[in-house]
Design a protein that fits this description.
Elements (H helix, E strand, L loop, with lengths): L22 H14 L3 H21 L5 H20 L3 H21 L3 H20 L3 H14 L5 H14 L3 H23 L2
Helix pairs in contact: 1-2, 2-3, 3-4, 3-5, 4-5, 5-6, 6-7, 7-8
Length: about 200
C-alpha cells in the first residue's frame, strides 16, 4: 500500500496506509498492473478473486449491506473502465453489463442520485463499447437507457450519440427524429431566454 507522506491528509498519520488502500486496494492495483503489462490471464484471476470477495462481503456483510454492495458496484465499474481504456471493448461490454445489472439491483434497494449516476455511466460506456464493436443496435438500446435516467440538461448530448448509433444501425428516420427533438428543445430554450 502507498504510505501517506508528511503529517498525513484528512487526519491520517504519517506512515499509515491511506483510506481504502488495505488488502483490497493492493489487489485491485495488482490486477490493473498485470492487465496493463500484458499478463491478461493473471489479471483476470486477480479481478475474479477480488469480485468474488466483494460479492461475499455484500451478501454476508453487515445487516444492511449497503457499503459492501456499493464497493462491489464500484469495483465492477472500475474493471469495465480498465478494459475500455485498453480498447478491449468486448471485455468492457461484458463487465459494463455486470456493473449495470448490479447497479440496477442496488438502485432498487438503495435508490439515490449517486447510484443513478453510476447506472447511467454503465449504460453510456457500454453503448460506447458496442458502438466501437460495430454493434450499433445494441448501442442504441444502451443510449435509450442512459437517456431515460440522465439529467435533462444532458439529454441533447445523449440524443446526438444515440442518433449516431441509429444512423449506423440503419435507423435513419429514428436518428432524424432525435436531431429534430434536439433542435426543438434548443429552440424552446432560446425562446425562453429571449422573452421580455
Amino acid at each position: 500500500a502507498r504510505k501517506a507522506t508528511g503529517g498525513g491528509k484528512d487526519g491520517e498519520k504519517a506512515g499509515e496506509p491511506r483510506r481504502g488502500e488495505g488488502r483490497r486496494g493492493r489487489r485491485r492495483g495488482l490486477g490493473t498492473a498485470l492487465f496493463q503489462s500484458g499478463n491478461r490471464a493473471e489479471a483476470q484471476v486477480v479481478f475474479d478473486d477480488s469480485r468474488t470477495r466483494r460479492e461475499l462481503a455484500a451478501k454476508h456483510g453487515p445487516a444492511n449491506g449497503r457499503e459492501p454492495a456499493w464497493q462491489l458496484a464500484l469495483f465492477l465499474m472500475d474493471r469495465s473502465l480498465v478494459y475500455s481504456q485498453a480498447n478491449h471493448h468486448e471485455l468492457a461490454a461484458e463487465w459494463f453489463t455486470r456493473a449495470a445489472q448490479n447497479l440496477a439491483a442496488f438502485e432498487k434497494r438503495w435508490p439515490g442520485p449517486d447510484v443513478t449516476n453510476q447506472l447511467r455511466w454503465a449504460h453510456q460506456n457500454r453503448a460506447w463499447s458496442y458502438h466501437r464493436l460495430k454493434k450499433f443496435a445494441e448501442a442504441v438500446k444502451d443510449w435509450d437507457k442512459a437517456l431515460e435516467i440522465c439529467r435533462k440538461e444532458d439529454q441533447a448530448w445523449f440524443r446526438t450519440m444515440r442518433a449516431n448509433s441509429r444512423v449506423r444501425a440503419g435507423l435513419v428516420s429514428e436518428a432524424l427524429a432525435d436531431i429534430t427533438a434536439q433542435q426543438t428543445q434548443a429552440s424552446l430554450a432560446n425562446e425562453r431566454l429571449t422573452l421580455p
